[in-house]
Structures are given as C-alpha cells and as structure tokens.
Amino acid sequence: MFTTVLIANRGEIACRAIKTCKRLGITSVAVYSDVDRNARHVKEADIAIALGGDKASESYLRSDKILAAAKQSGAQAIWPGYGFLSESVAFSTACEEQGIVFVGPTAQQIAEFGLKHRARELAAEAGVPMTP
To answer: Do the Cβ atoms of 84 and 104 come closer than 8 Å?
Structure first.
C-alpha cells in the first residue's frame, strides 16, 4: 500500500481521488497550474504543489514537472486521472524509470491497446466475446 499518491489531474476527478485517498488513509498530493491555484482540488488535498503556467501544456501535460512534484512530495505513486497523461507510454515509462508506480496500465499495455487491431487481437486471445 502507498502512503502518498500524487493526483495528476484537476477538478472533480481529482476531488474524487483525494476523497478516496482520505478514506484509505493515504496522503494526497494535488498539482495545479497558476490558473487553478484556488481550485477545490488544491484546497482539499493534503499537499498541493504548483506547476506554474496558465495552459495545460505548461503544467498538467509536463511530465517532467509532474515527476518533480512526486519526488518533492515523497509520493510513491502517481494516479494520472483521465486524459492528460493516462494514455502516455512515455509518462508511464518515465514513472517506472524513476521508481514511481504509475497507477494504471503498464506502458506496454497502453501501447498495445492504443492500436485498435492489436487491442482486438488481445481481447480475442483473452476470450472476450466479439462481433465479427
């Protein structure tokens, strides 16, 4: 079990993850852009770390900043939320390389399921009922 999880998302999604962390006794870490400094997820988290920038491309999509925030906070895991980094092979790999657990599919799984024909093959191999 982790003691600290960084939530690499914002808004209602982040608030739900923070609530779950609290219920499980896990320290939650929120990250935020300059625009979101007063957002609810920032206020509800146990720890909040500024990423800077006004745009997602300057903050929430910057894996280097997210990983630095994880190291700064002592987070053992990062939950990428939905969108943003959750489908990034590079981010999942970078987490693994830095010894931080990516809460989600492995980089290999992200890559394989990102290719529709390969995802279909994997589903068939697993016995998932499929339409012709």
So the answer is: no
For residue 9, the Cα-to-chain-centroid distance in whole angstroms is 7
68 exposure class (CB count in 10 Å sphere: 0-12, 13-18, 19+):
middle
Does 121 or 45 have the greater pLDDT score?
Answer: 45
What's the chain's Rg over C-alpha atoms?
Answer: 16
Instruction: Give the whole-angstrom CA distance, residue 85 versus residue 65.
Output: 12
b/e map 24-45, b = 16+ CB within 10 Å: eebbbbbbbbeebeebebbebb
- Where are the extended beta strands (E) located within the chain? 4-7, 27-32, 47-50, 77-79, 101-102
Q: From CA 95, how far away is CA 8, in angstroms rounded? A: 12
pLDDT tens-digit readout, 87-125: 899 999 999 999 999 999 999 988 888 778 888 888 899
